[in-house]
Amino acid sequence: MRLAEVSPDLEGARLARPVRAGRGELLLGRGERLTSARLMHLERRGVRHVYVDDDFLPALAPDPDLDEATRVLVGRSLRRVMEGAAQGEGPDMGEIAAAASRLVAAVDARPGSLFSLSRLRAADEATAQHGVNVAVFALLAADHYHLPEGERTVLAVGALLHDVGKAFVPVEILRKPGPLTADEWDVMQRHPEMGHRFLVERAGVDARVAAVALAHHERMDGGGYPRGLSEGQIDLSARLAAVADVWDAMASPRWYKPSFPHAYVAAHMRSSPGLDREAVEALLARVALFPTGSFVRLTNGCLAWVVGQDPRHPAHPRLLLLTDGRGEPVAPYVAELAGAATRVEAALPALPRAVRDNARRHLDRIARLLEDVSVDVPPGEEERRPARGDKAPSDGPAASRPASP
Ligand SMILES: [Fe+2]
Asked: Which residues of the chain have pLDDT under 50?
């Protein structure tokens, strides 16, 4: 199984995991063969990545993700709030609080793990799914601060609702494919205040929840909006939501842009003076910078397959080396990079044909090596380790494990 960019090269490959539309409807199921018509359909729906089965690499357990049932349920609750807001209706805050608690439980169920939230999804329904993702990323980053349970739930509610003000922005502006005019940008920049007013006047929420909606575009260097706050004037919850917002906006596909590789997003965020550095590092300690199943190039020129994560070293995944430093295929072997001078340099969309053919000749060896890969698995994760000959679950971790209570 490998994580691959949607491109004509994938014609003939079989899907290793299903692809869903924004509301959870199945676009293509596991095992479906990708034809050129299906690939074009996926591109039109904004799906940029898929997991495909190859006959040259065995199945792997994917990185932790939000389970599909929780994603669909929380997304539905958030969409109801957004649609109601546009009609002038106040939200059912009991439903949103339950959704937020479910997200807290889902994150708590995988302590210390490195997450890769699914990119296998059409780009429609972007606002609701963005809210869900921002809440999960904010909670992951919040682990670093050891917040009490109540504050984490407040953070999850605030992060879920951070963009509720977009319900009041005309859809022609929200979905405009090109750059916004000055007037349109002015309207767009009012969404934090409109969201804040809605939450205070119509939802009667905790002031800390409304503050996240108001301040999630404020920046540490004073360059944000609407009030141009800086540093300590911005609540921790809003700083965490800002970091989660930027991560998801860059790492997820939108109808007007592809998703960027995690390592690229990480580098961008580390060099952004407007983001809280500590919050950025807190988030980057909990996401897989090179997701399991992807191909990478190392600084010494070797090509490798990411076969697992080491929670202590998000930038140093477990690797199966497939070539030497000149890119020549070799008998695959496992390498440990933590502590070494060599680093992962970049994610690759695909492997050269000669490398794939060589891996196919070594399938037995690869399966044996995967059995011995030492991944430091956080508590509760042991059952996710792939056994030799295991197939990927039909719907990733979601299908095999119900949501946490
Ligand atoms: Fe926003």
From this structure: 123, 376-405
Q: What separation in Å is there between the alpha carbon of 351 and the centre of ligand 1? A: 37
> Residues 263, 230: contact at Cβ < 8 Å?
no
Distance CA 21, CA 121 (A): 5
d(CA 43, CA 261) in angstroms, rounded, equals 17
Question: Which one, of 298, 295, 311, 309, lies nearest residue 261 by Cα?
Answer: 295
- What CATH number is attached to the domain comprising 25? 3.90.105.10
* Secondary structure class of 299 (helix, strand, coil): coil
| Same domain as 136, residue 273 | yes
How confident is the model over 305-350, as pLDDT tens digits?
999 998 888 889 999 999 999 999 999 999 877 777 889 999 887 8
How would you class 405 by CB atoms within 10 Å of its CB: exposed for 0-12, middle for 13-18, buried for 19 or more?
exposed
Q: Which domain holds residue 277?
A: 68-284
In a shared domain, residues 267 and 303? no
Quote the pLDDT of residue 380.
Answer: 41
Do 128 and 28 share a structural domain? Answer: no
Calculate how far, in angstroms, residue 245's C-alpha sits from the geometric centre of ligand 1: 8
Question: Residue 3 and residue 178: Cα distance in Å, rounded?
Answer: 29
Q: Look at the pTM and tell me if it is higher than 0.70.
A: yes
Structure tokens at 57: 């690499």
From the CA of 254, how far away is ligand 1's center (Å)? 15
Which residues place a Cβ less than 5 A from the ion ligand 1?
163
Work out how many domains the chain is built from and give that number. 3
Q: Indicate whether 246 and 354 sit together in one domain.
A: no
Say whether both 278 and 186 belong to one domain. Answer: yes
Claim to verify: residue 98 and residue 23 sit in the same structural domain? no
Q: Give burial (CB, 10 Å; 0-12/13-18/19+) of 379.
A: exposed
**Residue 13 and residue 57 in contact, taking contact as beta carbons nearer than 8 Å:** no
